Amino acid sequence: MSFDVVLVGGGLQSALVALAVLAKRPTARVALVERAERLGGNHTWSFHAGDVPADSRAWVDPLVVARWSGFDVVFPEVRRGFDSEYASVDSARLHEVVTEAIAKSAGSRIFHGAKATAVLSNEVLLADGTSLHASLVVDARGPGESQDYLDVGFQKFVGLELKLKRPSPITRPLLMDASVAQTDGFRFFYVLPFTPDRVLVEDTYFSDTRDLDAASLRAGALLYAEQAGLDVASVVREEGGQLPLPLSWSYAPSEQSPLVAGFHGGFFHPTTGYSFPVAVRVARHVAEQLGGDVFGAEWRTLVDRHARQVRFAIMLNRLLFGATPPHHRRDVLERFHRLPEATIRRFYALETTAADRARIICGRPPRGVSLHAALAELTRRMST
């Protein structure tokens, strides 16, 4: 079977590439290979308004299930509102939109329940013997298929989507409510009020270990909901995960097909786990260059910029996990959220400037941070 591009993995990155390619090149033949029967797994992805360029909104906006005009963060000494747009995408909508787009495209196809046994430069072999050929193969499998990191911290969470008996008193996202008791590293709650009677409450940790007691976090999310005044009728959906946050990394972007993308290729935020902005950039590039020189000058510029941002984020991970005792990590994040709003936005989008990076690391260290350990980490960073 011949296609213009074969996408391996049915998560966010492959979905965005498929939508971008079909929007830019309606006659393109796209194959998408996914082991499960549905695309997207069981996830919620969010992004800030500036993360998506205007020329990409047409194919991103159909994925959005909720949009807000602002959001808040809460720490013991900082409660701050941000009046910039925030939006969320969920797996159900992603599956629906991508399935419809590919169904409308003659020559395109989704291979559900299909395991890729070999991902080669111009061919993907499936477990049932099917061979898919394309001028470009994109390997966008998720964390389970990526390298084993030896030096990591973890972002781990359990989120409950709750049906309420009456409208929620929380009307816009809480990106971080870190006013809660700190256990197992930095702990905060993430709250998304999708509708007045449907709210996602997520108990999240920046921890030294991947150990996750789902029952305990589930109970913590329900207790938080009760204390926040959410009158819960039922739990309609649960999601969770343990995302590695690397403290060191040998970054080697693809120079030829297959293009390794998504988490598998290092295209995510090493400190926050946010993947949407970077996934959009990769998708736009593939759509614009498909049929031409995908690995030419524009690709090298994209990966060089990404690598610069990744190196800085890795250094911050070293400081957060290596120079800061677990019970003081909240102080580091609280200090960060005092910075100018534009700096915070660019950090989440992996677009920090030199001035942003100076603002983030300069100044008096937060409580509990070892200045000696921090200087050692900075010295090690500059020597690698």
Summarize the structure in words.
There is one protein chain. This protein is α/β, with parallel strands linked by helices and 384 residues long. It has three domains: 2-68 and 81-148 and 247-305, FAD/NAD(P)-binding domain, CATH 3.50.50; 152-245, Alpha-Beta Plaits (2-Layer Sandwich); 309-382, no CATH class. It is 31% helix and 29% strand. The protein is built from ten helices and 17 strands. The chain has helices at 12-24, 57-60, 91-103, 214-227, 276-289, 297-322, 329-336, 341-348, 354-361, 371-382, and strands at residues 2-8, 30-34, 44-48, 64-68, 71-74, 79-82, 86-90, 109-112, 116-119, 123-126, 131-139, 152-164, 174-177, 186-195, 198-207, 232-246, 259-260. The strands form three sheets. Strands 1, 2, 8, 9, 10, 11 and 17 form a seven-stranded mixed sheet that branches. Strands 6-5-13-14-15-12-16 form a seven-stranded mixed sheet. The chain has a three-stranded antiparallel sheet with strand order 3-7-4. Helix 1 runs parallel beside helix 3 (91-103) and helix 6 (297-322) runs antiparallel to helix 10 (371-382). The longest helix has 26 residues, at 297-322. The mean pLDDT is 92.
Structure summarized in a few sentences:
This protein is an alpha/beta fold and 384 residues long. Helices cover 31% and strands 29% of the residues. The chain is globular, with a radius of gyration of 21 Å.
Helix count from the secondary structure assignment: 10
The number of strands is 17
Q: Please describe the biggest sheet, giving its number of strands, its sense, and whether it closes into a barrel.
A: 7 strands, mixed
- Helix percentage: 25-40%
CATH superfamily of the largest domain: FAD/NAD(P)-binding domain
Low-pLDDT parts are none
> What's the end-to-end separation, in Å?
45 Å
CATH topology of the largest domain: FAD/NAD(P)-binding domain
Q: Which radius of gyration do the C-alpha atoms yield?
A: 21 Å
CATH top level of the largest domain?
Alpha Beta
